[in-house]
Design goal:
With 258 residues, the chain is α/β, with parallel strands linked by helices. It folds into 2 domains: 7-107, no CATH class; 110-256, no CATH class. The chain has 12 helices and 6 strands. The chain has helices at 7-17, 20-30, 37-59, 73-77, 84-90, 94-107, 131-142, 169-175, 185-201, 204-208, 222-226, 230-234; strands at 110-112, 153-154, 162-164, 213-217, 237-240, 255-256. The longest helix has 23 residues, at 37-59. The radius of gyration is 19 Å and the shape is globular. The relative contact order is 0.13. The structure holds 2-acetamido-2-deoxy-beta-D-glucopyranose (2 copies). One 2-acetamido-2-deoxy-beta-D-glucopyranose binds next to α9. One 2-acetamido-2-deoxy-beta-D-glucopyranose binds at residues 220, 242, 244, 246-247.
Length: 258
């Protein structure tokens, strides 16, 4: 993310940046049944561009003195004054990472399911603790520019690379959980039911067994709630603040949230 960029847009984008393109590229490569040609072509073009950038980086002798790389776009992306050696230590291939980011900004589209009613779905806390759940929903669902307005949201699911499951675990805890019972079964039941509904009404969940779908939760019980639907737990991308591997966080597909 470039410093000083508008927070609303970058907020959504950064959450997805790390996993999104690679996960979706992998999924789209294996499950073609319903994809439109456009999405496949787009992903092909993105992959090719990232590979080209990666090769360029290697040709320029990545890890070396820098030299003419100093004028490359991707180096400016990291702040202009970026220390090339330091970048190479943080990123396996900073040029490829930059290209992947550019391709994501240009192409990446998220479809937001409309099923469900507030307050448990389509709504989350926007103040104090767990705010990210509410803010993310608000920015993606309520504040997105219209289709083709340059935003990340699309209203056309055939153009989507990822599908957002609009649930807020902290809302479930607030409205469904009865303290001090410690009984979290109702949370799992809601998650299972929600996924059952979107899988029955749309072809997209079954197409990928959930692998191009994502949820976001900042509540400690987020990982637990996601177990309510086995495919959500094992296949879908879970953006979690509780990113403990002891709680089932899988770094290869899940995303850590601050
Ligand atoms: C997806 O699979 C589930 C479980 O097998 C099934 O109940 C549902 O009808 C399927 N959805 C569609 C759209 O075919
Ligand atoms: C995360 O893991 C640590 C170490 O196993 C444990 O002490 C802590 O309670 C866990 N936190 C959550 C939120 O699960």
């Amino acid at each position: 993310m470039a410093p000083g960029e508008a927070p609303a847009r970058s907020f959504v984008v950064v959450v997805l940046a790390v996993n999104a393109l690679s996960a979706i590229v992998a999924v789209a490569g294996t499950k073609k049944a319903l994809s439109t040609v456009d999405v496949e072509d787009e992903l092909d073009a993105a992959r090719a561009a990232i590979r080209r950038a990666a090769r360029q980086h290697h040709r320029r002798g990545g890890g070396g003195e820098g030299g003419d790389v100093g004028s490359a776009n991707w180096l400016r992306f990291y702040g202009g004054e970026a220390d090339y050696d330091l970048l190479s230590r943080v990123y396996r291939n900073p040029a490829a990472f930059y290209r992947s980011y550019v391709e994501m900004e240009r192409r990446f589209k998220v479809y937001v399911y409309e099923e469900g009613e507030p307050p448990i779905l389509h709504e989350g806390p926007c103040k104090n603790i767990y705010t990210i759940e509410g803010r993310f929903i608000e920015q993606l669902e309520l504040m997105s520019p219209p289709d083709d307005g340059g935003g990340v949201r699309t209203w056309d699911p055939t153009r989507a690379h990822a599908f957002f499951l609009l649930l807020s675990v902290s809302q479930m805890v607030k409205f469904v959980y009865r303290p001090p019972s410690q009984d979290r079964a109702p949370l799992r039941a809601i998650v299972a039911d929600y996924v059952r509904v979107v899988a029955a009404r749309h072809p997209f969940w079954n197409r990928s067994a959930g692998a191009d779908h994502f949820m976001l939760s900042c509540h400690d019980w987020g990982p637990y709630a996601s177990r309510g639907q086995p495919e959500l737990y094992t296949n879908a991308i879970r953006a979690l603040c509780n990113a403990n591997t002891s709680e089932g966080f899988r770094p290869g597909k899940d995303v850590r949230r601050p």
